[in-house]
Design brief:
The chain has 199 residues and is α+β, with helices and mostly antiparallel strands. It has one domain (7-182): 3-Layer(aba) Sandwich (Aminopeptidase), CATH 3.40.630.30. It contains 5 helices and 9 strands, in the order E-E-H-H-E-E-E-H-E-H-E-E-E-H. The strands form 2 sheets. A 5-stranded antiparallel β-sheet has the order 1-2-3-4-5, with helices on both faces. A hairpin with a 4-residue loop joins strand 1 (7-8) and strand 2. It is globular, with a radius of gyration of 15 Å.
Length: 199
């Protein structure tokens, strides 16, 4: 199903990527605190990732949107949903992910945007389930997934894109179904400052 979606929340706009987003995105991806649990990216690799995410939005009408905070900053990172990479052992499906610049942690932006992205996935796209995954040691992101109302699968999986022997290879998988998301109180926790890897 294709949509033409630009998502607005009380404080944020989730939108298609712009050329001006590349420089702050590369800076975000060069911040060791933001990328503590991610494979490092060069500026060129960061630009290529932005191009892939933009192409995914063009294709589907939804994806990992660039996030703007009007009156605060024209670009603070990305939040959204996108199809899983085929190499993942639990593909096909759709993942939710987010990555915000450190300067915008602590303001509740991730919570606001992630809930909007889930709403698009379940109410507009019609998905039955959305998953998230992160490095097993990334306790901050795992807590975020809990607050979204997601539940962890037992055990771990090795991310096939991460080199064997890397401490970032072991990942945990979380899920939330549409029926659980609709339950009163589901996902009402405050998501903030989380970093979830994008494939």
């Amino acid at each position: 199903m294709s949509l033409s979606v630009e998502v607005e929340t009380p404080r944020l706009v989730l939108r298609q990527w712009r050329a001006a987003d590349r420089e702050p995105f590369a800076a975000l991806n060069g911040d060791p605190q933001v990328t503590e649990h991610l494979l490092p990216l060069t500026a060129r690799e960061s630009d290529a990732l932005a191009d892939r995410l933009a192409a995914g939005i063009d294709e589907h009408g939804w994806g990992f949107w660039a996030v703007e905070a009007p009156g605060v900053a024209p670009f603070i990172g990305f939040v959204g949903i996108k199809p899983l990479a085929p190499i993942l052992p639990f593909a096909p499906g759709v993942e939710i992910g987010w990555r915000l610049a450190r300067a915008y942690w602590g303001r509740g932006y991730a919570s606001e945007a992630a809930q909007a992205a889930l709403r698009v996935g379940f109410d507009q796209v019609g998905l039955d389930e959305i998953v998230a995954f992160t490095v097993a040691a990334n306790l901050r992101s795992r807590a975020v997934m809990d607050r979204l109302g997601m539940k962890a699968d037992p055990g771990l999986f090795d991310h096939p894109a991460v080199p064997v022997g890397s401490p970032l290879r072991a990942h945990v998988l979380y899920r939330i179904g549409r029926d659980d998301w609709r339950k009163p109180g589901a996902g009402d926790g405050n998501l903030d400052g989380a970093v979830v890897a994008a494939a």
